Amino acid sequence: MRPVLNTIHGRRLAMRLPLAGLFAIEEETGNPAWEALRDLIGGGFRIEHVESVLFHAVRFGSGEDAALDFIERARMGRVPLLRYVGPAVEILAAALTAPERKAGGTAGSSAEGGGTGSGGDPLNRTTCYRTGLAMGLRPQDVDALTLWEFMTAVEAFMSNTPGRMSETEKDEIWDWLKAG
Fold first, then answer.
1. What pairing do the DSSP bridges indicate for beta strands 4-8 and 11-15?
2. What is the pTM of this model?
3. Distance between CA atoms of 152 and 149, rounded to whole angstroms?
4. pLDDT tens-digit readout, 141-151
5. DSSP per position, 17-45
6. CA–CA separation, 76 and 120 (whole Å)
7. How far, CA to CA in Å, does 90 sit from each of 80, 95, 114, 135?
8. Distance separating alpha carbons of residues 75 and 36, to the nearest angstrom
9. 3-41 residue pLDDT tens
10. What is the mean pLDDT of the chain?
11. What is the DSSP letter of 90?
């Protein structure tokens, strides 16, 4: 996912939400990211939802210092968060949807099916880490991936007939994911 660029209170910030950001939003809001997005669109959100989405998007897009500065300004009232519901919706929607398919290539799998992973388990941190470990990824590797990258890696892993990828296939997928 390319970072979404937004100007917030006169400052241009890059915003990006890998899985670690989605997990953090879930922990802070008490809802899965899909529900947080639904609430933001439908108007049934708390201001903490906007703050959480924007903080983590700035954190992973522009860095920890920019995120802390943003949150300090918001809490001092210098950044009116209600004005930034649109950017919060934009970045969260971008993190939860797969990019468009390109001619001649595959875009992989999106997270359809009501937010469930393999075996009907909810798509959450535990499920993602367990799946990542089965594919040879460390939790830090899973955290760094966007949802689309993670689902593409899972699809590639599962499509292999014997159920395991060769080391060459793992290296190729990992190089592809790192290239973005």
1. antiparallel
2. 0.70
3. 5
4. 999 999 888 98
5. --HHHHHHHHHHHSS-HHHHHHHHHHT--
6. 43
7. 17, 9, 20, 31
8. 20
9. 778 887 788 888 889 999 999 999 999 988 889 999 999
10. 79
11. H
In this structure, what DSSP letter does residue 3 have? P
What is the token pair recorded at 166? Answer: 């060769």
Rounded distance between C-alpha atoms, residue 112 and residue 45, angstroms: 23
What is the predicted pLDDT for the residue at 127?
84
Dihedral (Cα; 91, 96, 102, 104), 10-degree rounding = 150
> How far apart are alpha carbons 131 and 10 in whole angstroms?
41
Angle at 135 between CA 132 and CA 136, to 5 degrees: 90
Identity of the amino acid at 74: A
Say if CB 90 and CB 4 are below 8 A apart: yes
